[in-house]
Amino acid sequence: MQYQLGGLSAIPQLEDRSDEQLQSESKHRAAAKAILGARAAERYDGEAARKYFNEALAACHPQERPMLRQMMKAALAQAERRPDELREAMEKLGQEPPSNRQLMLLRLMSLIAPPPNSSVLMRVRGFAVLIVLVLVILAVGFGLANLIALPFGGVGTLGGILLGLLIVAAVLGVLALVGRRRQDRARAVQREKMEAQQAQVRRIQRR
């Protein structure tokens, strides 16, 4: 209830604003900085996310700090590719945790692109995993291209590679589009829940 009554209640109203608009926001500074921190975490920029959340902590009311620290913990877990901590932090926030598939992708991301403070060995391992992953994707695309071209007399090696690249690019584009739409729907549902909670708190205050 303290979260809904405080400055962080402006988060749903500010989510559609650009980064430049949020940077210049003065009335709801804590909410704006929290959104910027969450966006930085989505870009896997842990340093920027930590900076924005620290600024939000400095600008928010003392009653809001426990909630904001939990939001910061979840954002940094995402930015630094720590799926288990992300699930735990999301559950403590009362939000639906990421699906097992999303957590698996985050684990894969932690292997391919470890956090900046990782050791040289982990970075080399990430580079090796990336090469293997690219080769596997190319092999799958080449196989699909040959399978598709089989009724038409087959295709050469170079043509199969090019066609396979097109198929892989199309599949990845469709998956990215579907994932973006799912994220938008999830954010819309979360925004509706927050607005409903705010309305409920206002009704309680009137009584």
Keywords:
77% helix, 10 helices, disordered N terminus, mainly alpha, 207 residues, 0% strand
Structure description:
The protein folds into two domains: 98 residues, no CATH class; 89 residues. With 207 residues, the protein is mostly helical. The N terminus is likely disordered. The two termini are 15 Å apart. The radius of gyration is 22 Å and the shape is elongated. 21% of the residues are buried. 77% of the residues lie in helices and 0% in strands.
- Relative strand content: under 5%
Count of discrete domains? 2
Major sheet size, sense and barrel closure: none
| Head-to-tail CA distance between termini | 15 Å
Q: What is the structural class?
A: mainly alpha
Put the structure in a nutshell.
The chain has 207 residues and is mainly alpha-helical. 77% of the residues lie in helices and 0% in strands.
Sequence-ordered SSE layout with sheet pairings:
Layout: H1 2-5, H2 11-14, H3 19-23, H4 29-42, H5 46-59, H6 65-79, H7 83-92, H8 100-112, H9 120-149, H10 157-206
Helix pairs in contact: 4-5, 4-6, 5-6, 6-7, 9-10
